[in-house]
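Budget justification aside, the reviewers requested a transparent look at the raw inputs and outputs of the sequence design task funded under Objective 1. We therefore reproduce one unedited record. The lines immediately below are the structure tokens for a 306-residue chain.
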């Protein structure tokens, strides 16, 4: 009995497989980069966090959750977490709100607004190292600009970077100044994207000044404020350069954040405790993900329903 000839693949199905193959070909370079620079380091960090290491930092034996248990029962690590939280609050809130106030003031029609906008955006052009060196000069206890101004007011010198009461605030102020330019640029772009018809209609209804800002400008800037809050939080949790240049985590651990603690355990002062440092890095990752999830769950919902 003659057999039926094999049916050719459906042209639509063949076209679909061709599209999938082309899509994977375009995605492959990004997937390779992601695996090399994110996937492998993350897997290696998890591996090191579950192993003890020898004097040279090489993994020696499996210890499971021991590093995490030691961290959670350590008073020094709890202090580091509190310092990290305080540093984040001292940088995110003033950085975002300060930029918002500046942008609103620039929209009042004062003279030289373009020059002022460029001046406020200037910190964005500074690197972390250069900005930190500048503020190290400002906060110098003997010849610094800040103490020089205090002396003219009849006040004694303050150890801005050497006194544990002021060191964290000083580093936070440096970080706020460095983030101010970027925040101003984002919010200025946000105000520029507000339709002029909305603002004009509000002015015709009698809204002006603070009422206009509260009722129209700030609500319309909700997505931009949300974006800056998330980005500033992640940036603050990962801050390292200004802490290393200004205080090196001191005095007496007053500015030792979680990122700097990871550096100290892994590399500083000849240390090679990669197991503990990797466990702290995992904790930092969890903290960043938790803060981002909370912000997306709470702030983004308020932005959408405002």
């Amino acid at each position: 009995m003659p057999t039926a000839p094999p049916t050719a693949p459906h042209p639509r199905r063949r076209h679909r497989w061709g599209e999938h193959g082309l899509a994977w070909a375009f995605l492959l370079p990004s997937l390779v980069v992601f695996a090399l620079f994110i996937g492998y380091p993350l897997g290696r960090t998890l591996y090191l966090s579950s192993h003890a290491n020898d004097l040279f930092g090489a993994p020696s034996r499996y210890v499971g959750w021991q590093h995490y248990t030691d961290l959670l029962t350590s008073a020094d690590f709890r202090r580091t977490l509190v310092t990290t939280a305080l540093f984040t609050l001292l940088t995110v809130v003033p950085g975002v709100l300060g930029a918002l106030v500046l942008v609103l003031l620039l929209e009042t029609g004062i003279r030289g607004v373009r020059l002022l906008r460029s001046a406020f955006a200037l910190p964005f052009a500074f690197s972390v190292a250069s900005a930190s060196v500048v503020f190290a000069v400002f906060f110098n206890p003997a010849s610094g600009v800040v103490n020089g101004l205090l002396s003219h007011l009849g006040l004694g010198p303050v150890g801005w970077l050497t006194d544990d009461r002021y060191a964290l605030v000083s580093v936070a102020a440096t970080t706020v100044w460095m983030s101010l330019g970027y925040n101003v640029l984002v919010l200025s772009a946000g105000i520029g994207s507000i339709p002029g018809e909305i603002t004009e209609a509000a002015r015709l209804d009698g809204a002006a000044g603070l009422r206009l800002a509260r009722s129209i400008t700030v609500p319309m800037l909700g997505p931009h404020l949300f974006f800056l809050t998330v980005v500033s939080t992640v940036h603050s949790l990962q801050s390292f350069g200004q802490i290393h240049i200004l205080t090196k985590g001191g005095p007496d651990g007053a500015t030792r954040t979680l990122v700097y603690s990871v550096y100290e355990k892994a590399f500083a002062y000849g240390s090679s405790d990669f197991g503990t440092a990797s466990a702290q890095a995992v904790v930092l990752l969890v903290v960043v993900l938790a803060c981002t999830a909370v912000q997306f769950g709470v702030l983004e919902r308020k932005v959408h329903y405002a």
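The radius of gyration is 26 Å. The longest helix spans residues 11-49. Computational costs for records of this kind are itemized in the attached budget.
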